[in-house]
Amino acid sequence: MTGNHQVLHGLGVSSGIAAAKAVAVHAAPGFDANEPPTTDWEAASARVRQAMANVSAQLTERAQQASETVRPILEASAKLANDRGLAKSVDAKLKQGTGVTRAVHDATQGYADMLAGLGGYMAERVTDLYDIRDRTISELLGLPAPGVPELTELSVLVARDLAPAETATLSPELCAAILTEEGGPTSHTAILAAQLGIPAIVQVPGVVAVAEGNLVAVDGGVGEVVINPTDDEVAELKERAVRRAKALAGSSGEGATYDGHKVALLANIGTADDAAKAARMDLEGCGLFRTEFLFLDRSDAPSLEEQIATYTKVFESFGDRRIVVRTLDAGADKPLAFANLGAEENPALGRRGLRLCQRREDLLDTQLEALAQAYKATGADVRVMAPMIATASEARWFAEKVKAVGLPKAGAMVEIASTAILAGRVMREVDFVSIGTNDLSQYTMAADRMQGEFAELLSPWQPALLTLIKMTCEGGRATGKPVGVCGEAGGDPLLALVLVGLGVSSLSMAPNKVNAVRTALRLHDLATCQQMAAYAVDADDPENARAAVLELTSPGLKDLL
Ligand code: PEP
Ligand code: MG
Question: Is 290 among the annotated ligand-binding positions?
Fold first, then answer.
C-alpha cells in the first residue's frame, strides 16, 4: 500500500475493529462567491439545465438500487430536479446577470419559500429541494456529489460530520466504520452508528484530509485510527479484538452484580429490524424504542394502520420481555419533514420532543392509539414514556393520555435538570422514569451535544450530571418507582457500575454493548458500586471521577474498556 502512515485519535463512540479503504463524504459546496456574472443567459441556462438533468439521472439510478422505502423518495427527488418551474426561476435570475451557482442557490430558495408557504405535502418537499440545489451546484462546479456516496465495496466512511438521516441509510455490510472530524459523542449520528453495529470515532482531527483509497484501520473502542497501517499494526488490532472477545466470553443471562443485585440489561432500538436483531440477543428487553427513527426519511406522516403494523412487529419480536416505547422525539437534530413547526433561533431549546407533540397533538394521539392497538393485539409488556418532560404537570398530562387509550404504564424521561431536581414530584405522576443522560448533560452543562468540541463538558462523568442522577434515584426511592438509564452512559461498562451504585435498576444501550456491561457488573458487588458512586459524585472533575472509580475495579475490567 502506498501513502503516508499516520496515527490519529478521536473519541470512540461505537466499538469494533475494522480495516478498509477510505471513502469521503463530501460537504455541500454552497454557491461560488467569486464567479463571474452571467452575460449570455441562454448559454448559462443550457448549462444549468444540463446539470439538473444529470442530477435527475443520478437520483433515478440510485432509486433503482434503493430499498422499497427509500425508492419513492429518490424517484420524487429525481422528478423535482427536472421541474420546469424551478428551471424557469433559475432563468429569471440568469437574465438579471446573476452567476450560475448563485442563480441556482437563490432560485431554489425562492422556490423553497413558496413550497413552505403552501404547507402540507408541498412544504415537506423543501428538504428534497435543498438536496437538489446542493447536487446541482456541485455538478456545475465539477465537484463530487455531496452526501454519502453509493458504496460498492466495504469502506471506511470519512466525513466532516454526518446527519442522522444519512447515517440511518448505512449498513455494516458495506460501511466498515465511520470517522468524523466533528460530531459529538452523544449526537444521534454516533448513537445510530452504535445501533447499527458500525464502529465509529468522532472528533478525529485532520481525518477529512485522508485521501480516498487509503487503507484505514479503526479501533472504535479506544478511538484509534491508523492510516496505511503496517502488517504488525493490523495484527495487533486483531489481537486486541481477540482479547476483548475472550473477556466477554461466558457473559450470559440476567444482569446482576457479583452478589446478585439485579439490574435489567436492555436494548436501545430504532426500527422493527433493530427489534428483531436485538430480540435474538441475550438481553432482557428493550429500554428505549426511539420511534422517531422510523420516520427520519419520511416526507409524510405515517398512518395509524402503518404504525399499528410496525409496533405489532416490534412487540412480537420481544415476546414477553419488556418494551419501553418513547413517543415521537422530533425536532432539533432529528427534524421530521411532516412535523415541521417552522424555524427557531435555538431548536434544541425550542419545540422539540413533548413540546412538539403538544402543538401537534394529532401526531401523539395517532401514535398512542397505534401503540394501544398493538398492545391489545399482542398482550406485550409495553411501557410508554415521553421525551423532554420538564414539569410534573407535563408528566400528568402525558400519563393521562397514555392511560386514556388503555396502555398500562406511563413514564417520563429525565432529560432536563428541572425534572431531576423535582424527580419525586414528577414520579408521583408516572409509573417509572428513564434518564436520558445525553440530553440531561447538554441541558445541565448548557453545551450543545452536536458540538463535539464540548466533549469534556458533556462527559457523563461530570459530577453535576452524576449528582442529578443521584437526585433522580432519591426521587425513585421516595416514591417506590423504578429509575432506568437509557442514554449512552448506560453502555459504558465502568460508568454502569456507578449508575447501579446510585440506585438505577435498569440500563438500556446499543445491543452490542450489553455483554461488556453484564461482565462488568458480575465482577463487582453492590457495596463496591455504591462506594464508586460516592467517589464519582464527590470528585471535582470527570477525569478524577473516572480515575477514582477505576481504582476500585477488579482487574478483569480493564480488558473490557
Ligand atoms: C438521551 O437524551 O439520553 C436519550 C436517550 O434520548 P436521545 O439520545 O434520543 O435524545
Ligand atoms: Mg434525549
Answer: yes
